[in-house]
Predict the structure.
Amino acid sequence: MRSLLHTQRAWRSHMAEHPLKNLDIMTSNEITNSIPYSPNHIRRLEDAGHFPKRIRIGGNRIAWLRHEVEDWLLQRVKERDAAVHLKMEERHQQSKTHGVRPWASLACNVAVTVNL
């Protein structure tokens, strides 16, 4: 009995330290539902190093590590936010040099006529 208990404790200890313990995967169906790209385009992005690499989990089954795909998506959001921030900075700099209000390009020009 003692050896069985010792084996179970050793197994739990091993699993607690195992690096793959908390890895979550995304299947190709989940990728297709989450990323609006065709499977061929995803493969092209992978080959070019612009999308996380797939892992083969069986003879006919592939998957991606969820955290890698989520990190890829977060990077896209950061790039978008940086581009928006840069554009706003450029507008602000233009307003300083040209005397144009930075929001002027966003506002609608409306003429109002008041008849009394």
